[in-house]
Amino acid sequence: MKKIGIALIGYNLMGRVHSRAYQDVKMLFSPPILPVRKVICGRSKQLVQDAQEKLEWQNFETNWEDAIKREDIDIVDICTPVYLHKDIALKAAELGKHIICEKPMAMNSIEAIQMLKVAEKNKVKHMVMFNYRKVPAISLAYQLIQEGRIGKIYHFRAHYLQDWLIDPSFPIYWRLKQNQAGSGVSGDLGSHIIDLARFLVGEIKEVVGAEEIFINERELIDDQGSRTGSMGKVDVEEATLFLSRFENGALGTFEVSRMANGRKNYEFLEINGSNGSIVFNFERMNELQFFSKEDPSHIQGFKNILVTEKHHPYMKNWWHAGLVIGYEEPFVHNINDFLISIDKNTNPEPNFLDGLRTHQVLDAIKKSVQERCWITVDK
Ligand SMILES: NC(=O)c1ccc[n+]([C@@H]2O[C@H](COP(=O)([O-])OP(=O)(O)OC[C@H]3O[C@@H](n4cnc5c(N)ncnc54)[C@H](O)[C@@H]3O)[C@@H](O)[C@H]2O)c1
Predict the structure, then answer these.
(1) InterPro entries from the xrefs (predicted)?
(2) Tens digits of residue pLDDT in 220-239
(3) Where does a domain end: 102, 131, 160?
């Protein structure tokens, strides 16, 4: 069996999710190449050593360049704050290593173009971890749309709402700094629903947006994460709303917020077409609601499909019908697809071009907010 060595950069939230995904993909998906958890990297020796033991990696490093240049590494998996994505990806590509990069792919589309070009030049495989595409219910929505079951699409409607910034005493850490995160909630949560919009409906032609920072000052923390008692200015948006027109004529409505009290990870989509509609809510991620005008009129209404059958996308490798899956499983699907693409020498999806297209939409939203008008998305 062919084996492939992984270097994971970042061991916290996404580092833990990806670590488990490498384990699950081996146990449940029979990928053509076996991923081997070779080296995990973080800045603090003690913390990364703890992570190495707990997440079962063979080695650890405290410098990402040392981790990725090792001869036994074939895939570099980037789970760091956004401002580091570009440098790690460029170096990895130049060393001929395949790349999995967390979203948002980069700080902006200029960086994303550079990453795509260097990855293509060095002929390495590249993926952006837009995990929600690989939720079986969303893959099924894609299949229903491709089969023409909802007809011509008129509306795409999406919210992605969280509430972790509601508390004014929540301090400024990397996600609340423009120079480390690139943007606020638009790049963080918005990138996911922009990717889903492109995946399910098609390319976005133009946008008009509004954004807000409701709490302008928060407490600063030091390099060790301890509170300093001094206040700093928040320079990334807490909420963004935008409208879009798609190239195929559909209209889009999007809302993302970190200030939606009571909402934890509320990702909701509704798509209305000439022949039917589709509704998805991540809090019920194993279900897809489908309305078809082709049903006899006396029984028309939304039906709830439990997407756990063997014939549903990605489900044949999981459990029996009705045994639901959870948050981390779509990451397993992406990693399995990535390993297949390396083995078959095909282009994985979602890839750096998808990451770039998302940034082009994000850049257009930013410009629209500044200029208070509709902006055409650059391609
Ligand atoms: N796909 C998703 O749904 C999803 C969800 C959450 C986060 N993310 C993305 O994942 C990435 C990481 O987010 P997170 O929530 O895991 O962040 P986090 O703050 O929990 O972890 C960041 C990790 O990066 C490491 N790190 C920071 N600087 C480093 C350096 N110079 N060298 C090596 N390691 C360094 C830290 O030690 C830490 O382990 C971000 O791009 C974020 O947007 C994606």
Answers:
(1) Gfo/Idh/MocA-like_OxRdtase_N, Gfo/Idh/MocA_oxidrdct_glycsds, GFO_IDH_MocA-like_dom, NAD(P)-bd_dom_sf
(2) 999 888 999 999 999 999 99
(3) 131
